[in-house]
Design brief:
Layout lengths: L2 H11 L8 H5 L7 H28 L4 H11 L7 E2 L2 E2 L3 H14 L1 H21 L2 H12 L5 E4 L15 E5 L2 E12 L6 E7 L9 E7 L5 E2 L14 E12 L11 H35 L11 H29 L5 H26 L10 H13 L4 H13 L6
Parallel strand pairs: 3-6
Antiparallel strand pairs: 1-2, 4-5, 5-9, 6-7, 8-9
Helix pairs in contact: 3-5, 5-6, 5-8, 5-9, 6-7, 6-8, 8-9, 8-10, 8-11, 9-10, 10-11, 10-12
């Protein structure tokens, strides 16, 4: 653009000042250490070069090159990165959170892939498994050479896992599992499933045990769930267990009762606290860029007060979500985070992220419903994030129970 044209453009847009990001506005970088910034930058760079050019097509096709990506993500060290030993990176919880943020800035399905592998399947083995189970599975899973899934939710039991119908019974020295699980990420492509079942040993809920189930075990099947309108760049399936016979060594020896699976869910929820921020940030950055170039009545859309009010309000909520996520990361790194604190982050950050996605869609107008822009894809994905790993209502009850001392779940 020549000088005359540049001057004309300057007059057209009115008073311009240097743009700042939400991170700059809230001073987010100052709250992160060098390793955390480096990990976030590495994942963002991988996302920009390897994932973003394809993600809209993967979403439209309802397919993801899982095996190929698993090895690449394993090489980056993302799987189980916050765990120690067995080929895991042993990073801080906050660093893991920032990796989730950058992964979900590309797509929630990609962050789910990382979460299910590391925070559900690998964490279950790492926290509750035997040394033999850990040695058998964790190094290969950390490299992305073996994939895991986590079977807790059932067709009729989501928020109330204590009511699960999947059961395990003794037959000599073996266990025999029967039942079904639903909405299980990675199930159709997994090499190993962590399956939770009632044993009846101590009554409903208290007798829940975890089992390490190789997916080539006779009687195990995992049909894929299709026709999804959300998380399309993610592989979702059922788990069907038809007289699946397992040796006694398949049981997770240290997990008894719902404490086992719920501890894993808290790990996954922690990643969502950060991940939702990434999805919201991508929507807001897209909307700001679009509003700056879209002219309405001979003036950029971003120059109108109503648009600026929307952008300012969304920036405040996004920045607050950032700060909450980092604060919870610091608490977790200090070793004292409580389940209700994770609920606080998951409830707030996902709720605000989906509100930001919807508002950004209005700024993009009709263009906001196409896959040319990421906003409608994020909005659709966040509809799932809003309800999985605990619905908003369940997290509200967790928070209120901590504040009132009253249990209102029943």
């Amino acid at each position: 653009m020549d000088v005359v044209a540049a001057a004309g453009a300057s007059r057209k847009v009115g008073h311009m000042s240097e743009r700042r990001s939400v991170e700059q506005l809230f001073g987010v970088d100052r709250l992160l250490d060098d390793d955390e910034r480096a990990i976030a930058a590495t994942v963002a760079d991988f996302g920009a070069k390897r994932l973003r050019p394809h993600i809209a097509q993967w979403f439209e096709d309802g397919a993801l090159p899982v095996r190929e990506l698993a090895v690449e993500l394993g090489e980056l060290g993302l799987f189980g990165m916050h765990l120690d030993g067995y080929g895991c990176a042993g990073t801080s919880a906050t660093a893991y959170g920032m990796a989730c943020l950058e992964a979900e800035a590309v797509d929630s399905g990609l962050r789910s892939f990382v979460s299910v592998q590391g925070s559900l399947s690998m964490f279950a083995l790492h926290r509750w498994g035997s040394e033999e189970q850990k040695q058998q599975w964790l190094p290969a899973m950390a490299k992305g050479q073996a994939l895991g899934c986590f079977g807790l939710t059932e067709p009729d039991y989501g928020s109330n896992p204590a009511g699960m119908r999947t059961h395990a019974r003794r037959d000599g020295g073996d266990w025999i599992l029967n039942g079904a699980k639903m909405w299980i990420t990675n199930a159709p492509v997994a090499d190993v499933a962590i399956v939770w079942a009632q044993t009846g040993e101590h009554g409903v809920g208290r007798g829940v045990r975890g089992f390490v189930v190789p997916t080539d075990t006779p009687g195990f099947s995992a049909p894929e769930i299709t026709h999804k309108m959300s998380l399309r760049a993610s592989v979702t399936g059922e788990i069907v267990l038809d007289d699946v016979r397992l040796p006694a060594s398949a049981q997770l020896p240290r997990a008894e009762g719902l404490r086992g699976p719920l501890s894993c869910l808290n790990e996954a929820r922690f990643g969502i606290v950060f991940g939702a921020v990434g999805a919201a940030r991508d929507c807001l950055e897209t909307a700001i860029d679009y509003a700056g170039t879209r002219e309405v009545f001979d003036k950029p859309l971003s120059g109108y007060q109503l648009t600026q009010a929307k952008i300012a309000d969304m920036a405040v909520e996004l920045g607050n979500a950032y700060l909450l996520a980092i604060q919870l990361g610091r608490i977790k790194d200090a070793g004292g985070i409580a389940p209700e604190q994770i609920s606080l982050g998951k409830l707030n950050n996902v709720r605000e992220a989906i509100a930001i996605a919807r508002q950004c869609r209005t700024i993009l107008g009709a263009n906001g419903i196409t896959l040319e822009y990421p906003v409608i894809r994020h909005a659709n994905n966040l509809e799932s994030v809003l309800t999985y790993e605990g619905t908003s209502e369940m997290h509200q009850l967790m928070i209120a129970k901590a504040l009132t001392g009253q249990d209102a779940f029943r």
